[in-house]
Amino acid sequence: MGIFGVKKKQENKKSTNQVEKTETKIVERPRICCIDTDQEVISTLEKAGMNLSIGSLGSKIKVPNSTRRENHQLLPNHNFPLNLHELDIFIMDLDSFETIAYNEEEHIREMHTGKSSYSLLSSFPETLFDPRPIASSFLRKEFYKITNREYLVIAFSSSNYEVDYEPIMVTEGNARRQGIEKHSIYSFWDYIPWQEPKYGKEITVCKSIDDLQRLLEKYKSNAYYNQTFEHPTRWNGGKKEKYENYFPLITNINGDIVSYVEVNEFNNLIVFPQIEDKANFLLEFLSKIAPSIFPELFPYSTTFDWRKQEEYWLPNFAELLDDKKVIEKDYKEKLARNESEIITNNKKYEFLHELITETGDELVNAVIKFLKWLEFKNVQDFDPANGSAILEEDIQVDIPEGLLIIECKGIGGTSTDGDCSQISKIKHRRCKQRNAFDVFALYLVNHQRYQPPLKRQNPPFTEHQIQDAVNDERGLLTTWQLYQLYDLVQKEILSKEDARNTFKNYGLVEFKPQNLEFIDEPLELFENGKICIVNIKDCSLSINEEILIEKNGKFYKSKIIDIQLNGSSVKSAKEGELGIKLSIPIKKKSILWKKASR
Fold first, then answer.
1. Region Disordered: what ranges (predicted)?
2. Domain range for residue 436?
């Protein structure tokens, strides 16, 4: 539960009905925790023999912060079962709470070990302290303790809101503020696709499981919503698609989702709107509907269990069951082989990720692996081999034209002028030692390494730094460019030989295909970019010929599928306005190139 996880004397609360002797037989599973549900819900479920524990996110506290200089140190007052990690179903009413008066004694730890403790600071003008959102975060950490088994959270919604908290560390000498942290009433779950809070009663039940749909229709007349949600989406193949594990249950008059279910391998969530008769709604849901949706949570549910007996098997079921066992065995074997291959592949190409994440020796080692993959000969990790106290280059590479020296840096920001130019001093020293001007110098940086490369400043060098590098005859390069170079080489857009030669360039080093002949920049595109109109002059194009597409400095391969001249298909063309059909779609302002004939 984090730094505030210390609880005062706590019991695993039970309702008064449980204390009284009753003849109701308690069903061991599922083990249900009711968090901030009213007494009617608890009584109804207990009478049905359900195994309940009680918890709370806590009560709001009226704090006497009446003047500008007043503040109070408070402790969260949430109450969770000690064995929460053993429970199966959690029912939460996020819109149910009580407000209590401040009592100083309740915010002093009776027993404490150590020389420091933490509290929350409530300062003027705050007069109503709400501990529920931070308790919601504590609850999420408790859910994390439930591993390798299924559980279900049922939440009756509340309007989403966040609270800023200020933890303080109390020591013998003083109380030190720890900064502000923000928590939401929905923090109990990793991701809630909430939109804006809206209130209303006009709702429509979505098509879902028949029994669940009928139940929601039955209780919708006395229900209202206070929060809307969206269906999460992701990009797949250039298109947005909805996550398949989210299912809307109820929408409002505008089509906003106000109730949904999220189904995962282990953790499952259902968000319901506020329902007046929660007691009977939950009783019907847990006894008649949930066992069929989440059978693992209801091992003792016997409704229609007799159908599983062999005497009632349907035709072909036995044969299909045998087939299933064979398929499962084959699947497990294939999956194990695939997982082993994934591990081997990740280990083999791990140096590519290290290029854009690491610093120090790890970065140098990754660069050396990349240079060897590019088939550079005689690549040497120079600093450790040298053992000199003088600042030297990190890597030396013997090349036919002389010596390539590389300084590698992994930094959180971008390079200073001094960072970029340091390699010049080393270059001059090497030239003097060799009594020759055959030394090529390169500054290689993994910049802004804590950010994803696509969000980094690319290139990270100023115009002044680039011009200085040209004047000093040295190169500037990023490890992100090396990462992209791997793909260019693999797709045979750039040869390893051309890539190696590029390392000798001055200024901003860029890896681009060599010996290209310009075709055209199409002005018109059709069929979503698969057909383009070009004007060519003295540029021979043929069907099945490979060409290169350049867009924003990146190159892609494509093949010419068809050529049309004056409305007729031709095998080749050298001049005129042509329609070209390509194997991959292109975008506007793309540039078309072909390999120049030698």
1. 1-21
2. 351-508
